[in-house]
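Throughout our pipeline, every protein is held as a single compact record rather than as scattered files. Such a record has a labelled line for the sequence and another for the backbone structure tokens. This encoding replaces a full spatial description with a residue-level series of whole-number codes. For reference, a complete record is included directly beneath this paragraph.
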Amino acid sequence: MAPTGSPRSWITTLAHRRDRERERTRLFERELNELWASLKDRLEASCDAYERLYPHGQAGILAQYEGADPEAPVVRRMTRNPADQQFTLEKCRVTVSRNGAVHRANYSTTRRELRLTVGQADDGHAVAQHDSADISLDRVCELILRPILFDDLPDDS
């Protein structure tokens, strides 16, 4: 069998393929961290929006975001203390955490853990997913916060 090309052509082809895959992985890892930061910002903004809709606890609850632990932010649902009518009693909370591409929302109630993933789109970008479907960051926040902020409404998710 006569040689049909230099080894350099297939080596170059595979080297370029490796470089593309490495760049795709770096992009995904960077965007995974950016998505986590954006999720925390959106959770806090959602609590702020809730407070603007129901100032001074008009809905009977306050939503408090606490991000002291950057790897496990907490949203608390606070209710009035009958003794002084201040919002000092915690009714429930959700703690959000991540392990790589898996995000979890753990509730202090009997509600089971919500598990969300971050997948990689065909173009290499990170995308939030629930039940194998791509979802927006706003939908992620809704899935996480609805059980504690709107538990009086039927669950239609």
In short: Residues 7-53 form the longest helix (47 residues). The chain has one domain: 11-149.
